[in-house]
Specification:
With 234 residues, this protein is of the alpha/beta class. Helix content is 42%, strand content 18%. The chain has a single domain, classed as 3-Layer(aba) Sandwich (Rossmann fold), CATH 3.40.50. Strands 1, 2, 3, 4, 5, 6, 7, 8 and 9 form a nine-stranded mixed sheet that branches. The relative contact order is 0.18. It comes from Fusobacterium pseudoperiodonticum. This is ATPase. InterPro entries: AAA_dom, DNA_Partitioning_ATPase, P-loop_NTPase.
């Protein structure tokens, strides 16, 4: 299925967690998946319960420079390429496209946990075949999504996922607004992923969504299954 970018121009909306769960679904279905990140915190390691003592070497930057790099195995079929600290020089566009093409020969899916603060952001959008957008249901993040729809090739945007949603009337109103807007644009809007103590426990334990048997997570799992349905249909 190629390269999938998880993107929102606003930080803190849960890009890393959503990228991880999206990737893990396919890995748990015996498909080889790589996650790479431009998030300097490398939160995907923590969310997976994996400790890497030193992330200053042999990561994304070294890969782009053609130097030896290390892929961290998070689970069977699921691998992660960390960000070192962003020291790449020269033509990033050319370097990234060259390296990503070689990785596509090894992995069925490449999930990019994208960060808007990096110079790689526009390159990620360019190479992505599918874009997934996490969001909050508030005015600032909704405006960010509308801006994203205007500036990005909308044919690449497969789904918008409302995340960390409460039960307020304001959030319900923004959800209705997004549903109307995205339906006209042909973009899938998932049901909201609500604030959940069960998810917080998963994060604390480094447990993936697909490793839990809690029935309380069934609706959330269905979100990712349906998003993959949108990707696989293309």
């Amino acid at each position: 299925m190629g390269v999938i970018l998880v993107k929102n121009n606003k930080g803190g909306v849960g890009k890393s967690w959503i990228a991880l769960q999206l990737a893990a679904y396919k890995a748990f279905n015996n498909e080889k998946v790589l996650i790479l990140t431009s998030d300097s915190q490398n939160n995907i390691l923590n969310y997976s319960g994996i400790k890497v003592e030193d992330t200053s070497k042999k990561g994304l930057e070294d890969m782009l420079e053609g130097k030896p790099y290390i892929l961290t195995k998070l689970r069977p079929n699921l691998f992660f390429l960390h960000l070192q600290g962003y020291k790449v020089k020269g033509n990033l566009d050319e370097k990234f496209k060259k390296r990503i093409n070689s990785l596509k020969d090894e992995f069925k899916h490449i999930i990019i946990d994208g960060s808007p603060v990096m110079d790689l952001d526009s390159i990620f959008v360019d190479v992505a075949e599918h874009i997934i957008v996490p969001t909050f249901l508030d005015s600032v993040t909704t405006s960010s999504i509308l801006n994203l729809l205007k500036k990005t090739d909308i044919s690449k945007i497969r789904a918008v996922i409302p995340n960390r949603v409460g039960r307020t009337r304001i959030e319900k109103n923004f959800y209705t607004f997004l549903k109307d807007t995205l339906t006209r644009s042909g973009v899938f809007l998932s049901i909201p992923i609500n604030h959940s103590a069960v998810i917080l426990k998963l994060l604390e334990k480094g447990t993936l969504l697909w490793e839990s048997r809690s029935k309380k997570l069934d609706d959330i799992k269905e979100v990712f299954i349906k998003v993959w349905g949108e990707i696989d249909d293309e």
